[in-house]
Task: inverse folding
């Protein structure tokens, strides 16, 4: 049995701030907060043990919504319930209102979403007085766990070893939580002096681990009479749950993406992550961007209506062009042509003809159809100076038999990391793909190449792998062991020779920020990302007026992601992401009661099955790019951003109701279509019609 | 924490697993899934939900595709069980594996054992499945990574290759 008193080091899950305890000592701040750990050699006995524990709580006033948190009548975190706030200011927003032909306002909401990787969180920890703590687990970021365990166990760097095992899905959901469960297993192992295994069952995993941050976005936009954005104010708020975890970073990405792929002559973005008494929300594919982009892309359709132009036209008139600046005043240097991208997406989806046909057919019948579009961008890699601070290190090593191993802490959890990184190394060394292996991410073997997040692996880590691999080649060439145009056999022989004379053959590459990147963390201004991926998605939807269910009938996903390194894997990232985003839009609703998820089962939290998904047609456009391994940009998160607004835009096209919040369930459609004027939406409601 | 089967008396259960006669001592209500994984060390059968929703724990029980998380082990008495580990003996296995690889039918892989069992079960009954047959045959198996499309393509490709042989 372990309580907070047994913790040898600091009682916290060290991440950005050290505010989250590993075990609550005096106060619990959310209903799933761990207090006491029990382990037994026969796990069947644990049920009994748990039944024998009783905990008496002295209730304090809780805060369960963003609005309650903002009111600050009860303070549950810091002095003002705010984990972080950002202010982005470009140009003079105050000056634009007077010239505006229209001022368009809107408020948009997105709900929490569970990552629902099919393999739950699980770890094994073993303590040895000599070697310290070793943890094997299903996780995304071995060095995050490493850092957290050092603080918790009060052990030095070399007495903590973290090994990532095959990981059955993650999607961000195994970015920060594994530090918690690894901490628990480590504490039990230290106390019991035996290896300890903790594997969550589905209900535990859903109720206790992180989810996507719920959000609220308010737009107030000054628009010219022909539908051009003159400027505006955006207020972006996310619910961080009870502890800071990664909320500041999620907020940052959401803030930077809040203006979409459009040119804002002036803008003011106020963003805030607030505390509530729910389990902390965390990383999930897209990381804040799907939330603020949902609002932006719904708002664009609203602007179009007010200005009396089409959803296509409003986007055309406002797209960012090369040479213009984003909301953070980053100059677009890529040769991106969003107009062309949009045109092609419309063509691929047969948009115009279908839209006209549906308008005609919708006059009768119970099945109304519509077309919706979303245009968006996704920044690859860490925001702003993030990559500079990470200072990632990557290694490549060759053995005496010429076998090459890539040494990175980047974890494979289905995205194809291992394949793509080996492919990059093989290409750099002019070796067959089979000649390159990847080392298991084990903190005693691989250097810290940063966390496996933010669609950064192919672009950032890939580039480092490429230069580390070239380092091996150069070493062999400089020592005269290898000539130009070598064969794999010659490479093998030269490795053997080198190692016999000089010992190990290893080459490392460290991240160097491109010299011309400027970012101001204070003012939130500058080059937010090294590169952006761009996309236009089109959804064809139907609304069944008998069941009120919305279905997606066809889906076109067209994107510009730089060079596509591996077409099959890239397509898989897009189809998988679109499927998750369809869930986000139409099916996946977390039902909260007093800060606790009460539908924490696959039976009542519904992710899309094969029957719920349309054909997802994936297309890539390639414009060539500056940074990145062979010009590859991030790809993993992009497909999470666009589907939800495209679908809800399509629903509005079909039935003319302006829904402002997701998930959009049949009951929401039903309610909106009742003859009674829809009730005014309360601020904390998850429905939205106007 | 997994559902507890109780701590009453264990009984002896005999069945065939992947063609081999096996004998285990287990609580009658213990889940077949746990017996396979813990007593027989067949870790290829996965637990995703523990309540019959996801299909990661699929096995063949006397030729039927079942969710082993829902089967009390006593129900498997005398039955013949095939798990993913026993699939290598199947003629279908090589084309299926190749097609999954070529089409990107596996991302994280946790759903793959269940998908493969469902696919084999389908293709044995319906060697030339229409897309709708594949969709239906795999409808009990959830995948969070792929969006299913590449899995269906893989099954279709394997079927084509088998028929051609
Ligand atoms: S674990 Fe058996 S169906 Fe999900
Ligand atoms: S491949 Fe990951 S769940 Fe299917």
Result:
């Amino acid at each position: 049995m372990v309580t907070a008193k047994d913790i040898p080091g600091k009682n916290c899950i060290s991440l950005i701030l050290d505010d989250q305890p590993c075990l609550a000592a005096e106060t619990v701040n959310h209903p799933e907060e761990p207090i006491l750990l029990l382990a037994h050699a026969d796990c069947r006995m644990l049920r009994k043990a748990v039944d024998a524990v009783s905990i008496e709580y002295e209730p304090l006033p809780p805060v369960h919504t963003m609005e309650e948190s903002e009111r600050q009548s009860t303070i549950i975190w810091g002095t003002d319930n705010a984990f972080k706030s950002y202010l982005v200011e470009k140009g003079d927003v105050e000056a634009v209102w007077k010239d505006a032909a229209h001022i368009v306002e809107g408020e948009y909401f997105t709900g929490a979403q569970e990552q629902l990787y099919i393999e739950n969180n699980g770890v094994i920890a073993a303590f040895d007085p000599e070697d310290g703590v070793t943890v094997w687990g299903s996780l995304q970021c071995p060095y995050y766990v490493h850092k957290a365990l050092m603080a918790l166990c009060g052990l030095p760097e070399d007495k903590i070893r973290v090994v990532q095992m095959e990981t059955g899905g993650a999607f961000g959901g195994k970015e920060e939580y594994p530090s918690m469960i690894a901490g628990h297993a480590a504490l039990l192992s230290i106390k019991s002096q035996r290896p300890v295994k903790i594997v969550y069952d589905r209900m535990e995993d859903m109720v206790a681990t992180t989810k996507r941050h719920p959000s609220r976005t308010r737009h107030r936009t000054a628009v010219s009479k022909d539908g051009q954005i003159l400027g505006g104010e955006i207020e972006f708020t996310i619910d961080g749950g009870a502890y800071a975890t990664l909320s500041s970073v999620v907020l940052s990405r959401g803030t930077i993406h809040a203006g979409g792929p459009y040119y804002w002559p002036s803008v003011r973005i106020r963003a805030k992550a607030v505390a509530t008494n729910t389990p902390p929300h965390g990383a999930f594919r897209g990381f804040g961007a799907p939330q603020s982009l949902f609002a932006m892309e719904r708002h664009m359709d609203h602007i179009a209506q007010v200005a009396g132009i089409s959803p296509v036209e409003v986007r055309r008139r406002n797209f960012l062009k090369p040479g213009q600046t984003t909301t953070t005043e980053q100059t677009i240097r890529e040769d991106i042509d969003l107009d062309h991208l949009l045109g092609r997406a419309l063509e691929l989806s047969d948009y115009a003809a279908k839209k006209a046909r549906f308008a005609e057919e919708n006059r009768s019948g119970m099945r109304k159809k519509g077309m919706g579009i979303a245009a968006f961008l996704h920044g690859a890699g860490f925001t702003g100076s993030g990559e500079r601070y990470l200072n990632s290190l990557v290694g490549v090593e060759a053995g005496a038999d010429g076998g090459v191993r890539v040494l990175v802490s980047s974890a494979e959890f289905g995205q194809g990391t291992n394949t793509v990184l080996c492919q990059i190394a093989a290409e750099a060394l002019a070796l067959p793909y089979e000649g390159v292996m990847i080392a298991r991410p084990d903190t005693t073997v691989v250097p810290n190449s940063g966390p496996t997040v933010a669609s950064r692996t192919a672009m950032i880590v890939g580039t480092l792998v490429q230069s580390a691999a070239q380092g091996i080649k150069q070493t062999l060439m400089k020592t005269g062991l290898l000539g130009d145009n070598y064969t794999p056999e010659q490479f093998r022989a030269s490795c053997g020779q080198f190692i016999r004379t000089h010992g190990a053959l290893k080459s490392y590459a460290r991240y160097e920020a491109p010299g011309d990147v400027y970012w101001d963390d204070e003012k939130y201004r500058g080059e937010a990302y090294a590169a952006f991926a761009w996309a236009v998605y089109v959804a064809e939807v139907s609304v069944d007026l008998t069941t009120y269910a919305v279905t997606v009938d066809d889906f076109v996903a067209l994107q510009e992601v730089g060079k596509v390194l591996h077409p099959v894997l890239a397509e898989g990232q897009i189809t998988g992401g679109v499927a998750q985003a369809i869930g986000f839009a139409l099916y996946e609703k977390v039902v909260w009661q007093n800060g606790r998820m009460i539908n924490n089962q696959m039976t009542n939290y519904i992710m899309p099955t094969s029957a719920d998904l349309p054909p997802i047609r994936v297309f890539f456009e390639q414009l060539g790019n500056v940074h990145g391994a062979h010009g590859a940009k991030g790809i993993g998160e992009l497909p999470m951003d666009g589907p939800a607004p495209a679908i809800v835009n399509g629903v509005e096209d079909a039935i003319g109701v302006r829904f402002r919040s997701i998930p959009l369930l049949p009951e929401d459609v039903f309610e909106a279509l009742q003859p009674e004027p829809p009730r005014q939406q309360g601020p904390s409601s998850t429905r939205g019609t106007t | 924490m997994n559902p507890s089967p109780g701590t009453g008396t264990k009984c002896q259960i005999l069945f065939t697993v992947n063609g081999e006669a096996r004998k285990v001592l287990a609580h009658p209500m213990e889940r077949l899934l746990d017996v396979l994984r813990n007593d027989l060390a067949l870790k290829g059968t996965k637990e995703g939900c523990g309540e019959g929703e996801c299909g990661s724990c699929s096995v063949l029980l006397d030729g039927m595709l079942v969710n082993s998380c829902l089967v009390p082990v006593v129900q498997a008495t005398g039955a013949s069980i095939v798990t993913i580990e026993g699939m290598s003996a199947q003629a279908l296995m090589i084309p299926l594996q190749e097609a999954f690889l070529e089409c990107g039918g596996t991302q994280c892989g946790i759903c793959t054992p269940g998908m493969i069992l469902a696919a084999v079960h389908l293709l044995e009954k319906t060697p030339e499945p229409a897309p709708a047959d594949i969709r239906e045959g795999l409808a009990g198996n959830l995948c969070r990574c792929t969006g299913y499309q590449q899995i269906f393509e893989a099954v279709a490709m394997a079927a084509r290759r088998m028929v051609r042989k």
Strands of chain B lie at 11-17, 20-26, 58-61, 64-67, 80-82.
